[in-house]
Amino acid sequence: MRGVPPPDAPLDAGALRRTLGPPAGPWASVTVVERTGSTNADLLARTGGADPAPDRSVLVAEHQDAGRGRRDRTWDDRAGEGLTFSVLLRPREVAVERWGWAPLLAGLALVEAVGEVTGRSVPAALKWPNDLLLGADPAAKGAGVLAEVGAGQGPERALVVGIGLNVATPAADLPTGGTSLAEQGADVGREAVLVAVLRALADLDARWRAAFGDVVAAGLVDDYRAHCATLGREVRVLLPGDRLLEGRAVDVDRDGRLAVRAPDGDTTVVSAGDVVHVRPAAR
């Protein structure tokens, strides 16, 4: 029987394709490369053209050196320590104006996968909109998600969702405010984590498409709210132009927007694209 590889072992591309790809797996193609600049950029380049990537394509890099987060923040990793991968989706059943839920579904898939591979020994939650928080008192960022829509139109229209997850990253290599599964005491292999995330994301994507993007009918809003650590907390939301919104985060609506109730009772709804960052209010 195949033994469990150590957390920093190279990914077995063949095993991943057999598990996740055709004919029985939920993904159309699974490719693993040793190194690239950005898996998101690579898949965005294949949304159209002479060799378009099919719906539900996966690209995994053992190392990427030009990864990006929201608002062009950098995301770098060392080979064997984390997971950096992107998926290309062509959700024809979902109107483009509802595609903003894709990164939230990716965050939800991360929470579900962490619970599966750790036996729920590591607390996992979401910081709105899609940062994965690991641990407690305090929780720290273990993964980030970046979604981008390709430039194509019609049948070439696609979106790419990139994920960077700290699996075996030691404390010395973690950024301020970051953590990893290993630092939270989870001894899990990267391959097992990747399979769990991609299976969870495929299931959530199928529910989303089956409901034609209606996240309320699909129960996805309720699932997201149940795992969102931002809800119920006093927050400070920094908006462009150094505008500041303070209050209690009270809801995430069907459009994925965060509702913040100010001390005077007025509620303001903000979308992820309009927010620079969300922080807990000072105590």
TrEMBL record:
Residues forming the BPL/LPL catalytic domain are 14-209
Known EC number(s)? 6.3.4.15
Stored Gene3D superfamilies: 2.30.30.100, Bira Bifunctional Protein, Domain 2 (3.30.930.10)
Q: Does the keyword Ligase apply?
A: yes
User: Which keywords label this protein?
Assistant: ATP-binding, Biotin, Ligase, Nucleotide-binding
Region Disordered, annotated ranges: 1-27
Q: Which GO terms describe its molecular function?
A: ligase activity
Read off the PANTHER family from this record.
BIOTIN PROTEIN LIGASE (PTHR12835), BIOTIN--PROTEIN LIGASE (PTHR12835:SF5)
Please state what the protein is called.
Answer: biotin--[biotin carboxyl-carrier protein] ligase
Record organism: Actinomycetospora chlora
Q: What is the lineage of its organism?
A: Bacteria, Bacillati, Actinomycetota, Actinomycetes, Pseudonocardiales
